[in-house]
Write a structure and sequence with these properties.
By secondary structure, this protein is mostly beta strands. The chain contains four helices and 46 strands. The radius of gyration is 28 Å and the shape is globular. The two termini are about 55 Å apart.
Length: about 775
């Protein structure tokens, strides 16, 4: 396999070829003109009045509804109709250039939602993909605030083929992308556009126990063409940061109940792993381990309509897809990998705070884990408890972090979040980790946001930590000479006990035009988040950023210039860094975004050396101008610190990346990524490092349930090739069957003829949801 010697410009050639393909399949000018003529007759800007906080009067369905993408069932005849949609982006509160109508009705068990979109069918973007992977398509969805408090909302969506996507939105936080519910959806493209039907079980939703439900609701349409147009039933002002405060209301939703579900999720996993007998000799043969079967059990019980308990025994928390490799050749801090495991993804948005005191991947290999979540109107409560068999420990310091494996531990995490008013909240968060071999770590924090007016707000996060080190010579290896807190404490595990703190405060203006953000961070030398991901301490940081957004129309949808500056100093009151820079973001026709970020000057102190006049220039261009092709690239060049060089010195760094997604068929896609990093010594031009990581993901969706995925990744820094095939059959978000394998190839060079397989693993997993 010596022919597998890869070069980054092989993938660059693929990038250029894909560009040529896309140019050949782009819509013609004649087609665009025909589309304009077909839709011009529905535009009447002089008489259009957008819906401001409208009301939808619901009634129970009077006939049958079959979820098949057709809208001719008698049950839709008396359904409430939502119409008079308005554009939210790129324009604001104008009439859409397509026809949109939505319907909603219900019965004792289900909420029914339907959409009819009048559009040129040949322009509709639709993909046959796995669930939650349709966000680049045309799609429609309903947003439900079942408590009517603006604290959090469900977003339940479908593309024109009925492919589902759902999230949960927390006001003032990120969306919970790991959230899933069970519902039915079907869609079809028609001669007039497309239409979608959805049936949502009330047992999949949480809402108050009341005879009459007072929900906030909105209907949403994504229309990606020249721009990524978004349309909304309730008119939205982008100058008001609280979008959910502008939603409509339901009337007439009566006599429905959120059932107390009991769900059982048994699963079984089988694995067989093998590796070379002698890792340095590819001719030594494979040591194939025995086949292992691991059963596990997940239980979910709705204690009340507002409180749900989850328990998992002997869980298989291995990931179906390996993490994409990251370049860390010039970094002294640990790398962050996002959570992929569904048990921890659901509800994770509640634990997203300004300091990452909760990083659920630190619960690495639990034997048992439990969750308790409750939503009482405007109050959210969450608890996670787990016994972990292999607990990683991140040790933060001023200029680096270290990582050790701490053995088994018990973790307990409690979160409380109380919404106040329409856009403010206050929260508390407690974490505690107890190691079986001795030692513990805890944090206690309060955070919140105070909305001072429509556009101005103040945020804070105050954290206290407590560390009780265990005593371990094994964990102390390579740490004995490392000290912190001005040399008063050692990094070794020698039984020390200490307290620490971290503070964050932010004053900001949010607006669709002028905005700014003024932040202050302070992390004491003895701060540590034992259940979190904080890689640096002994630092104070003050930053400021401000920008203004122009909306000139025509070719440019948005132009946003930005100015930023910052200053850092440590707890010995010594300056660590200061910087100033400018940024420009451009949104253009063809769903194209470009810009640059220029650090004009930075003066940093690293390893007790002064590095003045550091500079960097970063530029990017990304485009989704075609359903067949999405592509982009970026580069970064600058005068930097070679942090891992010996000796540490000035360097000239050049990094670049390319991203291409080619979709020749609606059910077939190729996604390629290439990330390259290099640096030369400034004094003599000697190469300090150079390498790249290339990754190609191929997805073939056979039907809505069955798909094949192949990931190929090459790491030029380690000269290693990984090939990971996977077949998935998914009935719903929880019932699925997986079978796959991983194959690792290392370059052994002469006399072993280049690349040979060094390790492999074959696995399957079957899980089946039972709802009682």
């Amino acid at each position: 396999m010596n022919y597998l010697k890869l070069h980054p410009f092989h993938l660059l050639a693929l990038f250029c070829c894909a560009t040529l393909v896309a140019l050949g399949v782009a819509p013609s000018q004649a087609y665009a003109q025909a589309s304009d003529e077909a839709t011009a007759e529905i535009i009447d800007p002089d008489t259009f009045i957008p819906n401001l906080k409208p009301t939808l009067s619901l009634g129970q369905r009077l006939g049958d509804i079959v979820i098949d993408g057709e809208l001719d069932d008698t049950g839709w005849m008396n359904a409430a109709v939502a119409q008079n949609f308005s554009e939210t982006f790129p324009e604001e509160q104008i009439q859409p250039e397509i026809g949109i109508r939505a319907w909603m009705t219900y019965d004792d068990q289900f909420l029914y939602v339907a959409f009819k979109i009048e559009d040129d069918p040949s322009s509709i973007r639709r993909s046959l993909v796995d669930r939650d992977n349709m966000w680049q398509d045309d799609y429609v969805g309903v947003i439900l605030d079942t408590y009517g408090t603006n604290a959090w909302q469900y977003f339940i969506a479908s593309n024109p083929l009925g492919i589902q996507g759902d999230t949960r939105i927390i006001t003032g936080a990120n969306e919970d992308e790991g959230f899933n519910i069970i519902y039915d959806s079907e869609g079809q493209v028609t001669d007039e556009g497309y239409q979608v039907e959805m049936r949502i079980p009330f047992r999949s939703l949480r809402f108050p126990e009341a005879d009459v439900q007072n929900w906030s609701v909105n209907f949403w349409v994504n229309h990606p063409r020249e721009d990524r147009n978004r349309y909304s039933w309730a008119a939205i002002s982008r100058d008001d940061p609280c979008w959910s405060c502008q939603f409509g209301k339901t009337a007439g939703l009566e006599g429905v109940k959120s059932e107390r579900n009991f769900e059982i999720l048994p699963s079984v996993t089988g694995t067989q792993a093998g590796s070379l007998v002698d890792g340095d000799n590819p001719s030594s043969g494979f040591d194939n381990g025995r086949i292992r079967f691991e059963p596990s059990l997940g239980l979910k019980y709705g204690i009340t309509p507002d409180v749900t308990a989850d328990l998992t025994l002997n869980p298989d928390f291995s990931q179906i897809e390996a993490d994409a490799a990251q370049i860390d050749v010039n970094s002294t801090f640990a790398l962050f990998f996002r959570e992929r495991r569904p048990f921890f993804q659901e509800g994770s948005e509640l634990f997203n705070t300004n300091y990452d005191v909760v990083y659920t991947r630190s619960i690495n290999n639990p034997s048992v884990a439990g969750k308790l979540t409750g939503r009482f109107g405007r109050t959210d409560v969450a608890y996670i408890g787990a016994h972990d068999q292999d607990s990683p420990i991140i040790l933060p310091f001023e200029e680096q972090s270290r990582f050790v494996q701490g053995g088994s531990s018990f973790s307990n995490i409690v979160r409380l979040r109380q919404a106040v008013g329409e856009r403010s909240f206050v929260g508390g968060l407690v974490t505690d980790r107890r190691f079986q071999e001795g030692g513990a770590g805890s944090t206690m924090s309060v955070d919140g946001r105070l909305q001072l007016s429509q556009n101005y707000g103040f945020e804070w996060h105050l954290v206290g930590s407590r560390v009780e080190e265990g005593v371990s010579e094994e964990l102390s290896e390579d740490l004995e000479d490392l000290t912190f807190d001005s040399g008063n404490r050692t990094a070794a595990f020698d039984g020390e006990q200490y307290n620490g703190y971290a503070t964050y405060m932010s004053f900001e203006r949010q607006s669709d035009r002028w905005w700014f953000d003024l932040d202050h961070y302070s992390v004491s030398p003895t701060f540590r988040a034992s259940n979190g991901f904080e890689t640096q301490n002994s630092i104070n940081r003050a930053t400021g950023v401000t920008g203004y957004q122009f909306q000139p129309g025509n070719f440019f949808s948005r132009i946003q210039p930005v100015v930023f500056a910052g200053y850092e100093w440590n707890f010995d009151n010594l300056r660590k860094d200061r910087w100033v820079g400018v940024n420009l973001n451009l949104s253009m026709k063809g769903q194209t975004n470009a810009g640059f970020n220029w650090v004009i000057d930075s003066d940093e102190v690293f390893a007790e050396q002064e590095f003045d006049n550091l500079r960097s220039f970063n530029a990017w261009l990304f485009s989704s101008f075609s359903q067949t092709l999405r592509m982009g690239g970026w580069f970064n060049y600058g005068r930097r610190i070679a942090r891992n060089a010996d000796p540490i010195q000035f360097g000239r760094g050049f990094d670049y990346g390319l991203d291409v997604t080619l979709r020749p068929l609606s059910n077939l896609s190729f996604t390629g990524e290439l990330n390259h990093a290099s640096m030369d010594a400034e004094d003599d031009g000697e190469e300090l490092f150079s390498g790249y990581i290339g990754r190609l993901r191929t997805n073939y969706q056979i039907n809505r349930r069955l798909f094949i995925r192949l990931v190929t990744q090459y790491n030029g820094f380690s000269d290693r090739l990984d090939i990971d095939p996977l077949v998935t059959y998914r009935v719903n978000p929880f019932t699925a069957f997986y079978v796959g394998s991983t194959h690792d190839f290392n370059n052994f060079g002469a006399p072993f003829d280049g690349y040979r397989q060094s390790a492999r693993q074959v696995f399957f997993k079957f899980q089946y949801l039972v709802r009682a």
